[in-house]
Structure formats: structure tokens, C-alpha cells
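INFO  loader      accepted 1 record
INFO  loader      residues=494
INFO  predictor   begin
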Amino acid sequence: MARRNVTSDLPRPTLHPDSASATLEKVMAPTTRSSLRRRLTSTKLAFVAGLALLLSACAEDKPLNTFEPRGPQARFIDSLMWPWIWGIMGVIFVLVTFGTIAIAVKGRVKPEDYDEDDLPKQTHGNFKLEIFWTAAPAVLLAAIGIVTINGVFELEKTNDDPAAGECRANADGSRSGELDVMVIGQQWWWEYRYDIDCDGFFEDVDGDGEIYGPNGAGGDVDDIEWDINVALDDDDLVVANQMVIPAGEQIDLELTSRDVIHSFWIPRLNGKRDTVPGRLHTWSLEADEPGEYTGWCTEFCGLSHARMRMSAVALSGEDFDAWLDNQLQLADVPTEADEDVWAGYQLFQANCMSCHVVNDGNLSYGPPVEEGVTPPDLEPGTVKDFESALTAGAAPNLTHFATRTVFAGAIYSHYAGLDADDDDVDPGEFLELSVDDGNDDGDYRLNEAILKRWIANAPDQKAMAPEDLRGMPSFPALSEEDLDHLVAYLATLD
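INFO  predictor   done
INFO  writer      dumping C-alpha cells
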């Protein structure tokens, strides 16, 4: 039986010439070109978006722009960045980036010329080259380190301790000398205490006849070992949310905290400095000209860290002394003749005085000092006017509430129509405004709606934890009429 050739019975494939065949390259070519166009378009859009984002960061006249210094300390920091920091970093960036590109271009080969055994020239063991690229960064870092360390000491300089009769509030009524301010961070607002009589920020709580002095110099350091709400000097001027300073004068600061770590930063006047519970950090700032300078807490401190702002208003020397004279006065006590204000005063006593302070010579504030923990110079039952029913032990002092332009941790403006960045507005006007004063032309008016919303339900306006005694609680029982009365009373605190 003959063998059958099976293979010869199968149909042979038809072979087409290359010109008529549908090769993979021809089939994929349109898709590849389309994908390439899409990738190029996406790249362009990404480049344009990145460029727009970069340009948006270059806006001028922004309050938190550290590249627009308005005081000697901020200018000194700026002079360190240019040319030392940014200049050297720029040179290194150019050398590394374009050097890498140059090496890549020089060393590239065509695919058909690639040889995996063809390695670049090796530099290992080149003693001179290795010494150079080790020594060069060391020299650069040493140069940056020298100017930076010098800058640290320069920024730590403070005023000399004032002599008798050279204070902002002398016994004879004169105003002279440097100003020391204590900055106290708490959740989530700032308190400013002015050492106006040059006796330091602390009382003689241990009864040894010595007081911890200004700038931490001299005196009895044991005074600061007491709880801060006991040791602080009652005679100091206390304000909240807005620090007022004289322009053209260096202001020495003592920074601390009542609860957690915060960070004090007004970029146009100086750099950052932490405020730490139980510790005092010195810092200083100076504004060249009158104006308002804003800042932000830059150390995460809890729920409302992002809404813990700061405001510093610099006034001329004359305006500052006038502001100081007014701040040292007691608040007016309303009479029953003005029914709305009197009703607000009564509501304040019932709802607010357990935390807030209004120094009017009439109301008492805060829990009494307890038996067994009383400092030697205090009698049991003494009421400290800065203690309150809060974890931090203090709430904003409202004695001259209506002379400020911000409240609620400096996130809201007191007055509508007031633009702190407007160069045509005299900063002295900021502190003269009230419902009845400075409002004749209608340019400014009290932000009553915002203020009422804040009083009625503060946690809804700013994240807080009142159930843990951190922040202001809501007052759902207050009617719209009650809120009107409270605002009417607060408007008289000028």
C-alpha cells in the first residue's frame, strides 16, 4: 500500500508582495501617531497648568509674603536668602541639572551602535576628582553655615533693660523708653501682655522681694515656676488677637504658651519662633512704617490651627501713646437709661463673665485661688482676673473690644468696609472705630451679623472642642433680641 503524502494535500498559503501586505507597522501607524499627539497635548496642558501655578505664587502685596520685608529683622532674613541661600542653591541647581543633560546628550548612542560591553570611562580612584567633589560641598555648607549662625545671633539681639523713668507708662504719666510684650499662644488665639511699667511680666509670687525682670534679665527666676495664670503680673495691659506697636521701634517679645506648642510668625516683620508651654523664648520685631501686618500660627496645634491668625498694627509714636492711654482706662459701666446696652450688660454677666474679662472696676472674674496651692502673697479666695473656665485658663480680654479690628482668632473683621491692605487707610483710624464714633460718613460699620453668628454658635464658625473646655461654646438659648443686646454692649467697649 502506497504511503499518502498528507502535507502535499494541504492548501498552500497565498503570499502577497510587501507593497500590498498589511504589515504591523502600517496597521499601527495611525494609532501611534494619534497617541503621540494626545501625549503631546497632555504634556502641553500639564506645562501650562504648572506655569500658571508658579505664576500664581508670585503675586505682589500679599500679607504673608516673606519676600516683602517691612522691618529690619525681616530685611536681614531676606539678605541671607539673597544671595547666600537662593544664589548658591540656584548655581548648584543649574550645574547639576544642565550637567546631567549635557552628559546624557554627549553619551547617547544610536540603537544600532549600542554595545553592552562599551562602558563609560571610570573615575573611581581619581584622587583629585574625589577630593574636589568632597571638598566643594563642604566649603559651600561652611560658607552658608557662617552667615546663618551669624544671623541667628543677630536676630537674638534685644534692647537694653530700661532704667527707672524710661517706660511706656511712667509714674509721672510720661511715655518713653522701649516696649516689652509677652506673646501667649493658646487654642486658638493669641494674647498680648504689655509690660508698661518696666517691672517684668511676673509677680513676686514666692514673696522674696524679687521679680523676674524684663527680657529675662536679673530678678527671681523662681517666679516663673508657678502656674502661668498665677505668676503673671496683674498690672500689665492685656489685649487679645491684635498686637499694637509703635512704628520705627524695636519691640522685644517673650513668647510662651498655655496649652500646646504654637508658632508665632509675622513674615513681613520677622521669622518664626515657637511658643512652648513652661518655657520662655525671646524674639523681637520692628515695623518701618505704620500699617497692619498679618501672620499665621505655623505649628500644628489642633482643630483650628489653620484658623489661628495674628494681627499686628503699627502706629506712629503719637498714635500709639494715645492708644495706650485709652487701653489703660477702665471700661464704661452702662446705666439702665440705655435699655439695650444695659440688657446686653446683664446678659454678659450671666453668660460670658466666667471666661472673658472686662476691666470696668465692677465685675469680678475667674475661679478663686484654692487653699493649699496659694502663693505666699495671695490670700485664699483671691480672684485672679485672667483665669477662666477653660483648659488654657484664659479667654480673650474684651475690655476694649471695639477698638480692635479683628476677633475670633483674627479671622473676622469687626468692621465692614475696612481693608487693612489699603494704603489710603490710616492705621490710627482702625483703633478709633465704634458704632457711634468714626462712622458718620458710613464708610465703616460694625459687622453685627458676623458678630451675632459668632456669639450664637462659635463652633459652627470655627472648629473647636468646647466640651473639652477648648474654645467657645454655643448659646442656643439666646434669642435674636438677646444677641442684639449683647452686640450693643460690646460696641460700647472702646
